[in-house]
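Field log, afternoon session.

UNIT: design team B
ACTIVITY: writing a sequence onto a fixed backbone
BACKBONE:
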């Protein structure tokens, strides 16, 4: 028997299921005009409503105190992933659908039919699993299994589809200026799929420009979209019980290029990363995250050499002032070390050292 949600959570859960139904109806529609737009808009809305229903069920505030507006989609994903059981694969496919929806809503995107099928089916799988884990309610109680996304073309292996799409983009780019918009739309869809494994994946026209330039220069897929090769796909069941799940592969073939590396010039598709988004914690915020006072956290940082680890610490210069900032890697390293660490002793030793 399904868990009875609190009032507002019940309303948003119903809206989520209604949007999911609308998205599936659009997917299976005979009408081609606007089909992709309708699918992406409805499915993104379904995800956001489900996440907010979960937060309300857990008695969490979903409105910003300053603006008075409800939290944005990404904020909801992060909160549910941190505290309320949303798994990385579930969060990844929801983010990917959201990025595709943003590109479609605000400009244009072209999603290959095979990739769209896998995206939709993986989203339905994630939606169903998460709703069951929180509300103890199965999607089949609301939607007959016969109407879940189906296709007359069986889904191919994910890597095969990506290779075919990359070849299609190369071919379209060779078709002259008139087909350039289609090629760039296809590039945006592949950039959006990176959100499955990359939390901070973004789609900007600068990224699209770099990718287009690299493809025209005959750069291999692995150099242009290294993140896509880190995505694994598993399928299970058949017919009405068919499910699709995306996950992150271990040991992916990623090549890192330093700024002064001679090969950096050839890496035309290297995309800029917002370092302030990566190193987003001040020393005070880091201390709060790990549950220590600022002085004790500082002592632990020195003991573990956190400030010497480029993956954990970076200094930003604003005018003549330098500000140390820390990434989530610093939080992880400190939390992993704390069970084996005598913080008081480390703190006293650091004070004696000064």
């Amino acid at each position: 028997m399904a868990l009875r949600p609190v009032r507002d959570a019940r309303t948003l859960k119903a809206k989520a299921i209604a949007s999911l139904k609308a998205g599936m109806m659009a997917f299976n529609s005979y009408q081609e005009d606007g089909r992709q737009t309708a699918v992406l808009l409805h499915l993104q809305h379904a995800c956001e409503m489900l996440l907010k229903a979960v937060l309300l069920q857990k008695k969490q505030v979903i409105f910003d105190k300053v603006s008075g507006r409800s939290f944005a989609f990404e904020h909801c994903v992060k909160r549910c992933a941190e505290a309320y059981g949303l798994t990385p694969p579930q969060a990844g496919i929801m983010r990917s659908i959201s990025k595709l929806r943003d590109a479609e809503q605000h400009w244009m995107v072209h999603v290959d039919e095979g990739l769209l099928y896998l995206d939709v089916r993986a989203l339905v799988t994630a939606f169903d699993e998460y709703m069951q884990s929180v509300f103890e309610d199965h999607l089949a109680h609301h939607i007959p299994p016969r109407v879940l996304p189906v296709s007359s073309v069986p889904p191919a292996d994910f890597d095969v589809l990506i290779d075919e799409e990359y070849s299609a983009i190369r071919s379209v780019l060779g078709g002259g200026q008139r087909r350039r918009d289609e090629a760039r739309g296809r590039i945006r869809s592949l950039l959006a799929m990176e959100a499955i494994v990359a939390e901070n994946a973004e789609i900007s026209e600068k990224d699209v420009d770099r990718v287009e330039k690299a493809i025209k220069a005959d750069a291999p897929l692995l150099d242009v979209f290294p993140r896509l090769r880190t995505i694994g796909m598993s399928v299970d069941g058949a017919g009405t019980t068919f499910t699709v799940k995306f996950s992150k592969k271990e040991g992916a073939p990623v090549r890192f290029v330093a700024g002064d590396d001679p090969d950096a010039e050839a890496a035309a598709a290297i995309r800029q990363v917002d370092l302030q988004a990566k190193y987003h914690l001040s020393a005070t915020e880091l201390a709060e995250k790990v549950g220590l006072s600022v002085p004790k956290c500082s002592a632990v940082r020195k003991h573990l050499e956190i400030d010497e680890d480029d993956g954990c610490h970076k200094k930003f210069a604003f005018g003549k002032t330098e500000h140390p900032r820390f990434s989530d890697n610093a939080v992880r390293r400190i939390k992993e070390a704390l069970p084996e660490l005598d913080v008081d002793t480390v703190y006293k030793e650091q004070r004696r050292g000064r």
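LOG NOTE: The CA atoms of residues 286 and 292 lie 9 Å apart.
NEXT ACTIVITY: expression trials, pending approval
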